[in-house]
Design goal:
With about 160 residues, the chain is mainly alpha-helical. It has a domain at about 65-130. It is about 70% helix and about 0% strand. The protein has 5 helices and no strands. The chain starts with a helix and ends with a helix.
Length: about 160
C-alpha cells in the first residue's frame, strides 16, 4: 500500500502542468492565399518518407508489409481469432455468436480470396516483366549463334 502511495506522490510531483503558467495570447492575423495548391503539388512529398507520412497522420505503414502481404496478415489474424474464440468458448455457442462467427468467417474468406487474386496477379506481372527483360537477350543470343554459324561455314 505504501509503495503505491509513494509512486502516486512521485508521479504527482513530476507530471508536467496541464496549462501553461502564462497563456500565450497573440492577435490573429488574416492572410489571403491563392487557394489550395493543385492536386499534384499537395500530393508531392507527402509519401516520400513513409515515417513522416505516419507522423502527419497519413495512414498505416510497416516496411515490407504492403499490398497483399498486409491483407494476408490481417486474414491470418482474423482466422486465428475466430478459431480461438470457437475453441475457448465454454458450452454450446448461442445464436448471436454463430452469426458473429459467420460474418467474421465470410470476411476472412473474402480477404483470403483477395490475397490469392492479388498474389497471382503480382506473380503474372513479375513473369511478364522477366520475359520482357529476357527478350532482347534471347534475340542477341540468336544473332550471335547465327554469326558463329556463318563464321564456321566460312572457315570450312
Amino acid at each position: 500500500m505504501w509503495i503505491s502511495c509513494a509512486i502516486a506522490a512521485a508521479l504527482a510531483f513530476t507530471a508536467p502542468p496541464l496549462l501553461p503558467a502564462r497563456p500565450n495570447l497573440r492577435p490573429l492575423r488574416v492572410v489571403a492565399s491563392a487557394g489550395p495548391p493543385p492536386y499534384e503539388e499537395a500530393k508531392k512529398g507527402f509519401y516520400v518518407r513513409p515515417s513522416a507520412a505516419v507522423e502527419r497522420g497519413g495512414g498505416f505503414f510497416i516496411p515490407g508489409l504492403e499490398g497483399y502481404k498486409l491483407r494476408l496478415a490481417v486474414a491470418l489474424l482474423l482466422s486465428a481469432g475466430l478459431l480461438l474464440n470457437r475453441v475457448l468458448s465454454p458450452g454450446e455457442p448461442g445464436f448471436s455468436q454463430l452469426v458473429s462467427e459467420v460474418l467474421g468467417a465470410s470476411g476472412a474468406a473474402y480477404l483470403w480470396a483477395q490475397v490469392a487474386a492479388e498474389e497471382a496477379a503480382q506473380r503474372e506481372a513479375e513473369i511478364a516483366a522477366r520475359a520482357a527483360a529476357l527478350k532482347p537477350r534471347v534475340t542477341e543470343g540468336e544473332a550471335l549463334r547465327e554469326q558463329m554459324r556463318r563464321d564456321l561455314d566460312a572457315e570450312t
